[in-house]
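Minimal example, chain plus FE2/S2 (inorganic) cluster.
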Amino acid sequence: MGPPSSAGRAVSSTVVQLDGGDTAAVFQAFHRAMEEEKQPTGGPHFVGKKDEMIEAKHSFRTLEGRDVLIVYHQSAFYAIDSYCYHAGGTLLNGDIEEFDGKMCIICPNHKYKICLAQGEGIYKATDPREKTPVPRWYSKGVKQRIHTVTETNGDVYVKLSEDRGFIESDFYQGEKGKVERAKAAAAEKKKKKR
Ligand code: FES
């Protein structure tokens, strides 16, 4: 058995299926499919006054239908999808800690660690092939979508990520994800009652 694998991020693509081999029709269908895809305007969106955001430390906002968590920690702002890529747990009350030189939020549900700057999922493990296994940090690649925060004259803005590739946290922003989030929240509640 090798060390835990480090998977890169998955990238989605638009697939157009046609019966024949008509190239022009393929291109037309492709362009139609691209136009039909919802394009976020991205912002920047005003999310609050700097002083208030600093005091709150963690602020939840819904921007263009997307639920985003804005975190203030050690003089820096970060914006990240507010539901954990693992099973849709809310990150709102996640602790912030530095691991392997990276500032991370820890999901309260199953303690997954997500780097705030890049959205990378990281974990510590040992390589059983080593004579004396030493725990090391490994990366799972980008798992959580992050957004850009700017500040002008005491006002804080968030520009949504326009990266079109699929990132795992995207799932929990959609309708299916919402259902899964509700199921997971109910399961967690039940577990805590035991
Ligand atoms: S839901 Fe976040 S670690 Fe499982």
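The mean pLDDT is 84. The first strand starts at residue 45 and ends at 49.
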